[in-house]
Design goal:
The chain is mostly beta strands. It is built from 3 helices and 11 strands; from the N terminus they run E-E-E-E-E-E-H-E-E-E-E-E-H-H.
């Protein structure tokens, strides 16, 4: 698919570092040509201009994603993540410093990557008395949230195997449960 873009004077066009990369890298492009860098203090965020406008077609969105090196090495992560098809203004990257030291972003630095994602448009219908008459998933998760899928009953492996019956450590491992550190 081809997207039409506008590139402000002085801005870099988005690009892929490698042909197989999912996202297009975007770069910091200050609106004032005299600005060479911006500071992002710990716990703060900055809205960084890219100098780019995208013609995102209906049925798609641009997802703004972190650059792994920015997050892992510099503790700079993206805040806002969606550019809708109806938006035709300049794309800004909301960069948060989640680290403990001041970070600097220079003009022309890669600051995020954009991935084109199809959007399934849906509508909602309000119901009362429970969400489903019939189960729609196989998980049985219900209203479990915030890590509930990581919870597994932990067998007692502190007793000698003769007292545990079939729950030897080998049986426990074969059933898919491993204690921390394994």
């Amino acid at each position: 698919m081809i997207l039409e873009i506008e590139v402000r004077e002085g801005a870099k066009a988005p690009n892929r570092a490698n042909p197989s990369d999912a996202g297009l890298d975007v770069f910091y492009c200050p609106t004032d040509p005299n600005v060479s860098a911006i500071s992002v203090m710990p716990g703060e965020n900055q809205l960084l201009p890219t100098g780019l406008k995208f013609g995102v077609p209906h049925g798609y969105m641009l997802q703004v994603c972190n650059r792994s090196s920015m997050g892992a090495k510099r503790s700079l992560v993206v805040g806002a993540h969606i550019v809708d098809s109806g938006y035709d203004g300049e794309v800004f990257i909301d960069l948060h410093n989640i680290g403990t030291t001041e970070q600097f972003v220079g003009s022309g630095d890669k600051i995020a990557q954009l991935v084109l994602v199809p959007v399934v448009h849906f509508r909602t219908v309000q119901v009362e008395g429970g969400l489903y008459d019939e189960p729609i998933t196989m998980s049985g998760r219900g209203d479990g949230a915030l890590g509930s899928t990581n919870e597994h009953p932990k067998p007692d492996i502190t007793q000698p195997s003769g007292e545990r019956g079939k729950d030897s450590l080998k049986d426990v491992i074969n059933e898919g449960w491993l204690p921390n550190g394994f």
